[in-house]
Amino acid sequence: MAKRILVPLDQSEVAESVVPVVADVARGGQATVCLLHVAPLPDNRVNEGGRVVAYADQEMERLRSEGLDYLHVVEVQFAETAVRRDPRGMRGTIRRPRERDPARGRGLRR
User: Fold this and answer.
1) Distance (Å, whole) CA 19 – CA 15
2) Would residue 109 count as lying in a domain?
3) Which residue(s) pair with 46 in the sheet?
4) How far apart, in whole angstroms, are the C-alpha atoms of residue 8 and residue 11?
5) 32: domain CATH number?
6) Domain hosting residue 44, numbered range
7) Does any domain span residue 36?
8) Where are the alpha helices (DSSP H) in the chain?
9) pLDDT tens digits for the chain (110 residues)?
10) pTM for this model (two decimals)
11) CB-based contact 74:19 (threshold 8 Å)
């Protein structure tokens, strides 16, 4: 059986529907569960006049805090299972998508 199970959650009903199943599998196989909150990267928030009311880094911190609170609530469903909340997914590391090389069908890094 799996030793570690990664559970990406985006606060949707579909994502949360797998939580009880993963909890049962983890308990039965004595696996460690890592909960990862997934959210889109925020932009600056502006009002109708085009004035910035919150910068992207402030929005990222707000999302990070809300995400960790959400993971704490989900963690309760994993009684008697080792659970780790992964804040690394909340840092917003941005990687440029790879461009396709049509001749070789592979991605290129620039």
Assistant:
1) 7
2) no
3) 52
4) 10
5) 3.40.50.620
6) 4-88
7) yes
8) 13-17, 19-29, 56-75
9) 668 888 999 889 998 899 999 988 888 888 888 888 888 877 778 888 888 878 778 888 888 888 888 888 888 888 777 776 655 544 433 333 445 556 655 555 44
10) 0.63
11) yes
